[in-house]
Amino acid sequence: MSSSLDRPFRLIAFDWDGTAVTDRTTDASVVRGTIERLLRCGVVVFIVTGTNRTHLDRQIADEIVGRHKQRLYLATNRGSEVFGFDELSAPVLLQRRIGTEIEERALTATAEAVRDDLAKTAGLEVTIVYDRMNRRKVDLIPLPQWRDPPKSAIGELLDAVEARLASAGFPGGIRGVAELARRAAIANGLQDVRITSDVKHVEIGLTDKSDSIRWMVAHVAGPAGIPTRDILIGGDEFGRVGGYEGSDSRMLVEEVEGATVVSVGREPDGVPAGVLHLPGGPPRFCLLLGSQAAFHPVNLPVAPTADPAWTLIEDGFVLTREHEIESLFSVSNGFVGSRGSLAEGSGLSAPATFIAGVFEHADGSTPTLVSAPDWTYLSGRIEGSALQLESGQPLEHRRVLDLRQGILWRRWRHRDLSGRITVIEGMRLASQSDRRLLIQSVTFSPENYGGVATLEAAAPDGSASIKSLFNVRVELSVSARIERPEGDWTPALSHVEVEPTRRDAWTMSVDLGRTYRIDRVACVRTSREPSAADTSTTGASVRPPPEELVAAHCAAWRAHWNRCDVVVEGDLEAQRAARFAVYHLVSAVNPDDETVSIGARALTGPAYRGHVFWDTEIFMLPFFVFTYPKAARALLMYRYHTLTAARARAKRLGHRGALYAWESADTGEDVTPSFVLAPTGEVLRIHVAEEEQHISADVAYAVWNYWNVSHDDTFLLDAGAEIIIETARFWASRAVLEGDRRYHIRNVIGPDEYHESVDDNAYTNGMAQWNLETAAQVADLVSERWPDRWHALSARLGIDPAEPRVWARVATGLHMRFDASGVIEQFQGYFDLEDPGPLDAGAALVPTDLVVGRAKTQRSQVIKQPDVLMLIHLLWDRFSADVREANFRYYEPRTSHGSSLSPPIHAALAARFGKISVAERYFRQTAEIDLANRMGNAAGGVHVGALGGMWQAIVFGFAGLSISDEGPRFRPHLPPSWRRLAFHLLWRGGPVHAELFPEPSAVRQEAM
Amino acid sequence: MTGPIMIPLQGPADAAVALPIARRLAELEGVPIHVIHVAHEAATSLDVVERLGMTAIELRGSVLDTRAGEAGPAIVATADELAAGSIVMCTRTPGLGAAEPVGVTALEVLRSSPCPVFFLAPRPAIDNWGPRRILLPHDGTPATSAAVRPAADLARRSSADLDILHVASPESQGPVERGGFAPPRYMDQPQHEWPAWTGEFIERLGCICDLASLRVRMSFASGTPGMEVLRFADTNATDLIVLGWRGEWGGGHAATIKAIVGRTTLPVMVVRAPAVS
Fold it and tell me: What ipTM is given for this predicted complex?
């Protein structure tokens, strides 16, 4: 390599045919890969050709998609046109020289004069090519064997043309014809004619390559501040050919004086002064471009976030912890979620990719969220030796969940059994900008060796049909690309059959100290989506490079965080826990799909089979209502779309209205397993499906809460009112007026599932009462404001005009017992149960019912989770301060927190009561549910309901948010270590920014 | 276990208890039996045979080794020399009182043994003993996982069922080691939590050795671990209990082993965990 080429150039301009490719039929994939890498590294590429754009599109441009293509220019038709590309990668005409009619006639006249002169003076037959932009071509050798000579045959072509001219007695050869043409052009009025020759032709034109280069300097290099010394010009015909100057010499205009110029052509008569001659043709030029690409290091598409307040870090490797790590470090976008498994696998890896709403319905079994074929597998072999954490010595191993960017990172420096050290860095994400894409990018660098490396990657079947009730068809395809320092590359691919999967395998030489990268993009599509969506990048055969896909994903996450971030200053652990919660909540939801909801473990693990519980509406939805209303709406629409099943369920039980399923999957039918064989040896009959009916009121509560905060009237009229009314109808028929002239709801289970088949559970009755009252309120609201809609709705649902009054009457008459101090009895007879004395439930390792047994627990006042207190949490303003506090004093010591949903609600309540140390304790307990590294709780997926509860603990608890028609108000009770708490909310379409400080309680609240 | 099975014998009573068990284990392992008798003064093999109340025919297929000196150190040294696969011995000399769950010699052997020790209660031999149901109590910590592979290997060789029992103690502070596995702290919905917890426990143990080819049953109990293990063994026709041991005995350590070994009539295999760095 010449020393003058031993530096990176910022702009590379070159001739295409003969320089970059042998001819127009050549497979240009290698040079295209290198050019694409140069473009991605910020280098401007300016391609100059004498012909039109068609073959350039085919050989290079059509295969490049992405913003980097905006650095690619095509100067076509020998200086007459320049094309660039817009941000969607579509060609844009930037410059075109259009000849006047006079010029066109003069070009034709000139060509014909040359033809006639040759015929007359030498008896030589030549032909004219007319259909070229701004030029005419005189074919000096119109013989069949020379119809389309390759560039490589230029020597033979030259000899044949010169011989033909000489044998006809024409003096001066090609140069003579060119001079003849010049004189004819001037005679026809073309003072600035451009005469060029590719040996076969003499071309008479209005432009040549000098126009391309001048335009480049004026419109590209100049505005970009690229000096001529940073410009590299390449071609294959700078020297004379047949005594006439080569076509590329026209690129040597004074505007690029100082640029480096290289010819890779044969140049039989040598090159002009100042031009480097590196003969070898296109292969040599590809090496030259490759060496330019190698000046730019191979990195991952983006850099990881370093701020510890935004990262969750797992150092080292403990095999038995893998399932937990996989859950916590999942990447998900609400459509598809992929567990954070080690790409190469381990003894305990359980890679899984879940697609929201795709359930397997094996005959007679409980519907289960399907795990799609694994796409994440990627492993390396060095000289045949597999890179495995469990073989050799990991010198460094760190995994980082980058909450800010929604990316799972990994850095692994490993010494294998032969002493070879390899550094591997990788990232994985589920795109938030195009939900069907999953992206994996991995670099590997041989630190102390060179050799042969083989990469093996999962090659899932292009289409995997997964049976479900709706016969949802799932297609998962993966594309891969390898990047070397010299440029993108697609090495020879082979396949490895590893039952029951098939893997792609690439083998290549790797050098010490260099870095290589593999990018894999998986695309998941289901038959549920409209085919129109295929116009996105997902459906395209060519995708933008990972840099752009990742940038778009990161931008989407920035937008999420701008809406949803919770800032806790002064307590790093609390800050990290809060963002962990927000990360998984945002990751769990797809605002564009209203046919799915969020399962108890979201898309992070197989536990709970993807089933949807009240967790979504009561624990998660407030977060979405206040920060991501579109997502909240989609989640509630899932309940609307499953209303038919809820109606059928109520009817089966002999009631009116709608009773939602305790566990719901894709259809809304109840999918609760009816029993379980516990490892205690007991066969546990599961009663929640029949008895835990508060779910219907919970859904109604969420609907009203969403409307109240958003004032999304369209939703209320199209779906929300119907849900509230149908659930109220259920309660109106479920409650029974008894001899005491009170309405009773018997034989239910409340949130405290330790006590089954109880009568008048306080939470159930309280929420039913609210549901009935709210339905009456909705009836009034809709009939007054939208009478036409009310008529239509009441006609469709058969609502009797007197029915709302019945709802109100039942609500008023529902049983609710308070003792003298204002404590609400959790259910009839609860006060008579055995008082267990204060529990130290926070320190307990095992839920109380497991320690003392179910029967004994049921005889005691020990409760699993807040029940009365849950009612107070949700309907805060319905109870006096005295009643609220009396109940907290009574029930909190009796709660064993056997549910992960319990600690966050206690944290919220304690904070609202100003019991800050108690609130802090429960808050930390909530954080530990998933983040404690010794519990194993999260192996089957994160507890996304508890994470929603954590957000509520912060916003309703520590910040003391309450809402009224006047808007949000805050009464903060911050832990002393929290120097500042800040977050955004959306209130009826407008953003509100809250900033809260501990002492003295201070609030800065701004409408934004 | 590939080395010989060592049986320290002092007299006819412990020979009657230990030999049938050792023979069955030796059959399963395909290894020889190495009988060792330690006395203060050296004795001839024939004298020892007589002292053990045995005949030469009964010792067919076995090696008889006599050593002079202190019993515990001599047994351990011999096990070292022979790279013994296991030691089968009574917890104390049959007929003597039981102030401690394990006698002095047995404790010395346990403390220093290079291989697992099968403790046998000094009671009449169990007829037709063979490991058909093996009970592996496991507290969820990596340190106690040392017992998993020996238990699984034995289950595989003997086609036995393997019961894994996790006992949650209200007093327990839970595992503090990374990768430890605790009882289900939250039981949001038992119909989902139990299968998930059980599966996770077995899969974690499956990292240590292959369990998939065995009949494995995961069980859970709460209470005092020693008593719950004994209760489980009584009600589930257990033939052998396999325990992991961290290597500490005095004070409040090894409470579970002491409770089990001191009370059970079943053979108990104790596997010492490697020191945690």
Answer: 0.85
